[in-house]
Amino acid sequence: MKNSIIINREIWNEKHDWKKNGDEWDGQALKCKVNYNYWKQSLYQNLINSNIRENDTVLEIGAGHGRWSVFLAKTAGTLILVDLSSNCIEFCRNLFVDRSNIMYVLNDGKNLAGVKDASVDFIWSFDTFVHIEKFVINSYMQEIFRVLKPGGRAVIHHPGRNHFLLWLGFMRHLGNMGNRFYRTISMCRTRDTDGWRSNISKQMVRNLASKNGLTIIDQLQSWDEKEKIGVPRFNDYITILRK
């Protein structure tokens, strides 16, 4: 499978060179036609800072090299960084070597084992769910419900393919021509790549969240409607959930 746990672990633990520690992914800012640092700050203010209270327990799924962890660490009382890549976990350990309030979890790519029930105030995940399969997202939704405190929130970045065309996802396995055709009809994109997005729609994420007891607060593509700043590249979405 294109977006299997095994392939994800291989890519992020061994193949990706992390040349800018995550900041190599500046395509969303370019699509929004704004400076990358300005885009990052806008995301921080609108999606992270607005959801974290001082001393909250915060969990990040797919910490990578800490691109967003450094923002989360500004306010969190306790920060739990989760990743399936041992190299990424080790990088974050070194990045935050002077911090005693950070917990590191090397997981199996689909659960939050080791995190206590109803212990987390806020969950964040960016550029992770865009690459994972339906059953993995379902597993994480179960875990998100389990570890969130009542009233706790989660902000998840994920693909937004056309829901009614997901059944044609097999075309992604039919070489460049099949993948290009499916990209065109499921993302309305005739150029670029599909960003290795999994075969997921915003409706599917909504359905999986609801199935596992989570309330959908919002699903958005832009968090700043005035300046149109968001995640339009690859037709991505952000879903905000509450327990």
What's the total helix number?
8
List unreliable stretches of 5+ residues: none
Specify the helix fraction band: 25-40%
Order of helices and strands: HHHEHEHEEHEHHEEEE
Helix/strand-derived class?
Answer: alpha/beta
Question: Could you say what the CATH architecture of the largest domain is?
Answer: 3-Layer(aba) Sandwich
* Sheet with most strands: strand arrangement: 3-2-1-4-5-9-6
Classified in CATH, the superfamily of the largest domain is Vaccinia Virus protein VP39
CATH class of the largest domain: Alpha Beta
CATH fold-level assignment of the largest domain: Rossmann fold
Q: Write down the domain tally.
A: 2
Overall radius of gyration: 17 Å
Mean pLDDT: 96
Largest sheet: 7 strands, mixed
Gap from first CA to last CA: 31 Å
Residue share in β-strands? 15-25%
Description:
With 243 residues, this protein is α/β, with parallel strands linked by helices. The longest helix is centred in the middle third of the chain and has 14 residues, at 134-147. Helices cover 33% and strands 21% of the residues. Helix 6 packs across helix 8. Strand 7 and strand 8 (229-230) form a beta hairpin. It has helices at 5-15, 27-32, 36-48, 69-72, 86-95, 134-147, 175-187, 202-211; strands at residues 57-61, 78-83, 102-106, 120-125, 148-158, 215-220, 222-224, 229-230, 237-242. The strands form 2 sheets. Strands 3-2-1-4-5-9-6 form a 7-stranded mixed β-sheet, with helices on both faces. Strands 7-8 form a two-stranded antiparallel sheet. It has 2 domains: 5-160 and 201-242, 3-Layer(aba) Sandwich (Rossmann fold), CATH 3.40.50.150; 165-196, no CATH class.
